[in-house]
Each structure stands twice: as structure tokens, then as C-alpha cells.
Specification:
This protein has about 150 residues and is an all-alpha fold. It is built from 5 helices and no strands. The chain has a single domain, classed as Four Helix Bundle (Hemerythrin (Met), subunit A) (Up-down Bundle). The longest helix has 29 residues.
Length: about 150
């Protein structure tokens, strides 16, 4: 399947445009993970603001690179935490992270091939917002019963 077709299908799967904000309902109880989640929400919000201000073409490349590095580091931490406490969501979490990175790679490939496209940038920030809400709210919060293992 062509990358753009797979990306379009991914984006159509229930992802509607909406700006996401951190709330305590996303708390895992693991301070380091929660702080990183808050940073991801801020990155998305800042990028959305930049797009609204017409600055997307100036920062899109940096966003793609920063998001890639940040997500890899964060995913590694989160997966290690889930594995160490034998969280039942560990396998689902790893799979979701892999799919996120595949989708991000598709955006990166499209940017490399075609340069900045405002529509792609909007799709990316919308995808990130919805992914954060769904992933954290459904999978990551399953760390909460184990949070005592990560305090101290």
C-alpha cells in the first residue's frame, strides 16, 4: 500500500480536529512519565499556535526532528517502566508506539519528498493531539496501580 494511502487511512480512523490539553485524567502516577506527557501536549499546542500564526513552514522540519527524538526517548522510558512492573498493557503499549513512529515516518517522508505542506502539518498536529488523548487515556494510565514502584 502506498504511504499516502496508508497515512490517509490512519488519519480517517476516528481522528477529528481538536486541540488537546493536559488534565489529571491522563496521570499515570509516575512523575517522570507524566512530566514528559505534559511536554508532548505543550509541543503540540505550540506547533498548532505556530500554524495558526502562519509560521509552520519555518518550524515544521524542527518539529518533525524534535518529535522523533522526544518520542523515541519517552517511549523507551515508558516501555521499560511497564516491563519492570509487568503491566498488563505493556505489549499493547509497545505496538501503539511502533505504529506512532511509523505514522511519524510517513510525515517525515512526505516532507522530505515534497517540502512543507500546510495541510500535512495540520494533519500531523491533529493526529498527535488525538493520539495523545487516546493512547495516554486508554493505555498509559494502566501504569497507575504500579506507581508506588516508581516513587522515591
Amino acid at each position: 500500500m502506498a504511504q499516502s494511502a496508508r497515512l490517509s487511512r490512519t488519519l480517517r480512523k476516528g481522528y477529528a480536529k481538536a486541540a488537546m490539553k493536559w488534565s489529571d485524567e491522563y496521570s499515570t502516577g509516575v512523575e517522570r512519565i507524566d512530566n514528559q506527557h505534559k511536554m508532548l501536549f505543550r509541543m503540540s499546542e505550540d506547533f498548532r499556535t505556530s500554524l495558526d500564526d502562519g509560521l509552520g513552514d519555518r518550524i515544521y522540519d524542527g518539529l518533525l526532528k524534535s518529535l522523533d527524538m522526544y518520542a523515541r526517548s519517552h517511549f523507551r522510558l515508558e516501555e521499560n517502566c511497564m516491563a519492570s512492573c509487568e503491566c498488563p498493557a505493556a505489549k499493547e503499549n509497545s505496538g501503539a508506539h511502533r505504529r506512532f513512529m511509523e505514522t511519524l515516518r510517513e510525515f517525515q517522508d512526505r516532507y522530505s519528498a515534497d517540502g512543507f505542506a500546510p495541510g500535512d502539518a495540520r494533519e500531523l498536529v491533529d493526529y498527535i493531539d488525538r493520539w495523545l488523548s487516546d493512547h495516554i487515556g486508554r493505555i498509559d494510565v494502566q501504569l497507575k496501580p504500579f506507581d508506588a514502584q516508581f516513587k522515591g
